[in-house]
Amino acid sequence: MHKLDGLPERVTVYEVGPRDGLQNEKAVIPVEVKAEFIDRLAAAGHTVIETTSFVHPKWVPQLADSGELLAMLQRRPGIRYPVLVPNLKGLDRALESGVEEIAVFASATETFANRNLNRGLESQFEMFEPVIAGALEHGLKVRAYVSMVFGDPWEGPTPIEQVVGVGARLLDLGCFELSLGDTIGVGTPGHATALVEAFGSPERLAVHFHDTYGQALANTMAALKAGVTVVDASTGGIGGCPFAGSATGNLATEDLVWMLNGLGIETGLNLDELVATSVWLAERLGRPSPSRVVQALSQKALSQKD
Ligand code: HMG
Ligand code: MG
């Protein structure tokens, strides 16, 4: 283990596997498998697991079972189980399921707002404002995402001030945290540093990097150096957004934890248990995990058995 100056002592890994990871899966995954997956993540030390979405079931059929899943899930004390909520209909459904934390998800670009939310850059706020206010009235915590922070497949590079404009507005509405989403994984470390710095303070920021171009870990390192301490990641690197064709998996939780362990940064996570969960899930999804660390450690475990 070798520490580096200028990095945090501890990082919160915000696990998005059950939501971002599974939302793009075509074959229906049984609700019991989802519940077991989430419980395995909790057992491996996760303290925050984004569990599902209360979006329109026709838009994301894989997560149409969100109510059933939450009813089945044995929620452990001290663990946060946030869910995505786009609108008041989604908030009502989430409240019925007894959720304590939600996340709204905005776009930094006009085209993705239209594709993902069926409304424009400005009108997305008409949808989110009552959701955030209603959730806060019910005592819920509200996280916010802003997507396409570095670039968008239709519009090209996203101007930094456009991202800060959308993000700052969400924070002003009362969201406790803003997660910066590189939905299509096009960012590079200098861009990540510039974006975090443009917000003025990293304190309420999290990062959410997809690994399409293999830059997610490098961008995470840049964000950590700029003061961010909350990093979104997905079990085994699964995931993607159904409304952005070029989006692939998120930063793999195991790749992140390998790097953080090597740097002596605490996460409270048990890497062996995370890898075992990824291998277990990959068997259920019918294909190997894209995570390099999962591949390396599961191969090693197999060769030691021989
Ligand atoms: P819409 O069709 O514009 O909604 O969808 P509407 O308000 O016009 O309502 C139409 C009908 O849908 C109505 O039914 C509503 O009741 C129903 P009708 O009266 O006609 O019978 N409806 C709902 N039903 C159940 N649950 C709901 C709901 N809302 C409306 N919540 C909406 C607008 C936003 C709902 C739709 O566009 C949607 O569900 N989008 C979801 C998109 C999504 O889930 N994307 C993936 C997650 S975002 C992501 O992955 C990026 C992220 O990871 C960060 C990053 O990587 O950058 C977070
Ligand atoms: Mg995402």
From TrEMBL:
<dbReference type="GO" id="GO:0006552">
    <property type="term" value="P:L-leucine catabolic process"/>
</dbReference>
<keyword id="KW-0479">Metal-binding</keyword>
<dbReference type="InterPro" id="IPR013785">
    <property type="entry name" value="Aldolase_TIM"/>
</dbReference>
<feature type="domain" description="Pyruvate carboxyltransferase">
    <location>
        <begin position="11"/>
        <end position="275"/>
    </location>
</feature>
<dbReference type="GO" id="GO:0046951">
    <property type="term" value="P:ketone body biosynthetic process"/>
</dbReference>
<dbReference type="InterPro" id="IPR000891">
    <property type="entry name" value="PYR_CT"/>
</dbReference>
<dbReference type="GO" id="GO:0046872">
    <property type="term" value="F:metal ion binding"/>
</dbReference>
<protein>
    <submittedName>
        <fullName>Hydroxymethylglutaryl-CoA lyase</fullName>
        <ecNumber>4.1.3.4</ecNumber>
    </submittedName>
</protein>
<comment type="similarity">
    <text>Belongs to the HMG-CoA lyase family.</text>
</comment>
<dbReference type="GO" id="GO:0004419">
    <property type="term" value="F:hydroxymethylglutaryl-CoA lyase activity"/>
</dbReference>
<keyword id="KW-0456">Lyase</keyword>
<dbReference type="Pfam" id="PF00682">
    <property type="entry name" value="HMGL-like"/>
</dbReference>
<dbReference type="InterPro" id="IPR043594">
    <property type="entry name" value="HMGL"/>
</dbReference>
